[in-house]
Amino acid sequence: MSNDTNKQVLAGLLMACTVAIFALLTFVDVPTGVRDTLLIGFTLVLAKFGTMVDYFFGSSEGSKEKT
Fold this sequence. Notes:
Elements: H1 3-27, H2 32-57, H3 59-66
C-alpha cells in the first residue's frame, strides 16, 4: 500500500468511528457513567476528524501540491 492509500484508509476509519459514536449517543440509551466516557471519546475523535478535514481540504493539501 502506498502512503496516500494508508492516509485514505485511516481517514475512512476515523470518519466511520465519528458517525458510529454519534449514532450510538443519539439512538441508544447508554448508562450515565458510560455516556460521559463516550462523550469524552467522541470529543477527541471529532477533534481528529476536524484535523483530517483540514489536512485533506485545507492549506496542507494545497501546499503539498504546490511543491
